[in-house]
Predict the 3D structure of the following.
Amino acid sequence: MFFPISHSHINPIYLAVVGFVIGILGGFFGVGGSFIAGPALRLMGVDWNYAVGTDLAHIVGKSIVAARKHRTLGNVDLKLGMIMALGTIGGAEGGAQLIQALKRAGNVNTVVSWVAIIVYGGISVFMLWESHTTLKLNKRRSHRTISDAKAAESKADHSAFGPVTKTIQQLKIWPMINLPTSGIQISLWTILAVAVVGGFFSGFLGGGAGYIRMPSMVYVLGIPTHLAVGTDLFEIIISASYGTFTHAIKGNVDILIALVMHTGAVIGAQIGVVATQYFAGPKIRLAFVPLPLIGAGIVVYTLVTGHKL
Amino acid sequence: MKPDAAKSLRVFAAELAIYAVLVTAYFFLVLHVLGDWLYQLETQHRILYAVVAILLIAGQAVVLDAVTTVLFRLLRRRWR
């Protein structure tokens, strides 16, 4: 099928299948899946600028479906999502500006690649340690012998990083924001700091940066994992819409490709959301570990071989 | 395999098959109709194109979500 906007020939079934896979990941982990979508489009000969912009447009659609499903399960904190969207957009602009500065300095590819490897690798190692330790601690709590399904249902979340999270929550810097859906009260500045950092990496490394935001919401803000996944998706709708708009104005979005990819993502996202009901928070976090590693692997590959996927 | 799981898988497979037919029709009808218009819009009116792009992807998300939900409900009821 010919897509006139990006001047590319791509099999629509390939696009729908890629969308399906990303949809499952998005629904289950609350990530945009740009580390797969970008290279998958590039593999079909789509220029990088179109791959980045089109991926963002597709993320908007997929996140709407997944966030709607999560909302029916009570997994979306709208108030938190709105506040975070503001910080994300600001941070994304900061990240994009740093990219421009590095471009002028002439070392953008090397710096971004190394930062990506360190950040992706760091997240994976930390989450592996934390979820593994939490699962071991949960096993030792003999009096709390509830099944995984019940733990997932209750959305109560235990974390080996919990004491640090509690300390962060106790920082009483005005104004304090009450988030009844998430069951916490926390400083507005802490929420904005998390959102700005997530947005910064979104602008700097590309994509929705769910691989940073979702863990930050769990470990820094203390949001239960199920709510972090749903709220992250809701927040991504706003920030990715902004990204789609700015990229479309710059001529980087082939909306026809995004629409076709999205047909597969609809089914995938629904499967991913339903699957979260059967897993407790630490298990979702443990399953999340390979995702940033895939991103790191792709960057290492491009560094070693010199190929741009 | 438990009977419930087998039934769920059967319903899901049927949903996928029906959905695939609908989506194929969608590729050829809607995208061919919209293709030229969107291409013209992208080359001549970028801001309008940006707005239309967001509306299209959001609209498609809501419609397809509703279609799959209705499909799943109907099939589940029929096969119960």
Notes: Chain A has 13 helices and four strands. Chain A touches chain B at residues 1, 4-5, 12, 16, 57-58, 60-62, 64-65, 68-69, 241, 244-246, 248-249, 251, 253, 255-256, 258-260, 262-263, 266-267, 270 (CB under 8 Å). The mean pLDDT of chain A is 86.
